[in-house]
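Class, study these two lines:
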Amino acid sequence: MKDKTPLVSIITINYNESDVTIEMLDSLNNLSYKNVEVIVVDNASPNDNPEKIKEKFPEVTLIKSMENLGFAGGNNLGVNAAKGEYLLFINNDTIVPDGFIEPLVETLDKDETIGMVSPKIKFHWDPTLIQYAGYTPMNHWTIRNNSIGYHQKDDGDYDKPGETESIHGAAMMVPRRVIEKVGLMTEIYFLYYEEHDWAQAIKRAGYKVYYQPKSYILHKESLSTGKFSPLKTYYISRNRIVYARRNFKPLHLLVSMLFQTLVSIPKNTVTFLIKRQFKHLRAFWKAIFWNVTNHKIIHS
């Protein structure tokens, strides 16, 4: 008989935000689902003391990386230490309600063809507004997708669970058996797009990606990188192209690279110039040149 309360390993990354992480851990303390272990990976925070996390929550497993491994690398360290049947990857800048684990576990328990599941994600600054209720397909021209329900009122219109095109990295649960079959998140991205890449790998292995609105979290969003920083500009611009190179079929890749070259790159360059956002312009072109000079290391 299948265990109705399998062990869930909750993995989160801390980077210079111990106080933010502690707020999230405080909310985890109220979970109605009790069979959990919590793993915090500190990504070599240069201006923080992650030991305060361990002092307040001695039951938490604190892993201190010797270097900043990025989103995927930090989470992969957590996976290697995890013992759970299900692994929940959750951003440290989130607050969770007490019953958010059960619907995710039940979703995976009932259908073993589901390879990963995300809850509904709402904004912490306004819990009546949705951030994520599934994703649209990745556009082969722009290499962008759209979050379904984004900035819409949480009025019941997005309460139908079901298959979706991609997962949200702020909160995603994946069975250990799926990770053992598909592998860990690739670490080439460092920040942004890695969860979409992982979702594609899991779908290629024959699994479904699922949205479960019976569960939700509140997301503070982009505290580590800033909502609009040159760092974010660099990684999103670089990794958008990396994603296409790793996941698009040859014809779709050709179409997207033509669009980037003839439309997107000139448009972004002019926009940054007009707005005199020169740091963002440098970050953008650094991202383009990275893809030009690293043309042999992309593998799907």
About this structure: The beta strands are 8-14, 36-42, 61-64, 86-90, 94-95, 114-123, 126-132, 162-163, 171-175, 208-219. The CA atoms of residues 87 and 275 lie 43 Å apart.
